[in-house]
Amino acid sequence: MKTNAARVANISRVYRFDIFKGAVGPEGKIEKERSVGIAYHAEGFATYDVRLKTFLSDNFYLLPEETSGRYSISTRGPSTFPGRKYFWHKVGDAVVLSGQNAGLMKLSFDLFTDGIYMNLYPKDSFEAMDSQVEQTLTEAVNETKT
Fold first, then answer.
1. Where are the beta strands (DSSP E) in the chain?
2. Are 15 and 87 in contact (CB under 8 A)?
3. What does the pLDDT look like over 43-75, one tens digit per residue?
4. Above 50 in pLDDT, residue 128?
């Protein structure tokens, strides 16, 4: 089994996904109104790092649940327990949509109104990660199990 450090060192590609505010159109299909953020996902990792334009200095994380197609939306803060660096705070849920809205994930934050979606088809990808994204992904992987 690879260590987390080895997994991070072997990241070959990071993908970016559009997060947008949308509304259900007349035929039931979600229609994009405007972009509200971006999510990053590195090959080999299960976690998405979510950045919303409204909260430029905050990071949210999509963590897969045991049920296929379902995710928890979490933030993290410093832990007060010995041996644990972070404490995860669940702030919402996400579910992969199907049917005519296949390829989208609905993000349901506890304090936001509905209508926030993530496109599951990457906008683009890049080989060289910027240092902040790399650090965030590294920390998320290291602390997912703690």
1. 14-24, 30-42, 48-52, 60-64, 70-78, 86-96, 104-109, 116-119, 124-126
2. no
3. 888 899 999 999 888 999 999 998 888 999 999
4. no
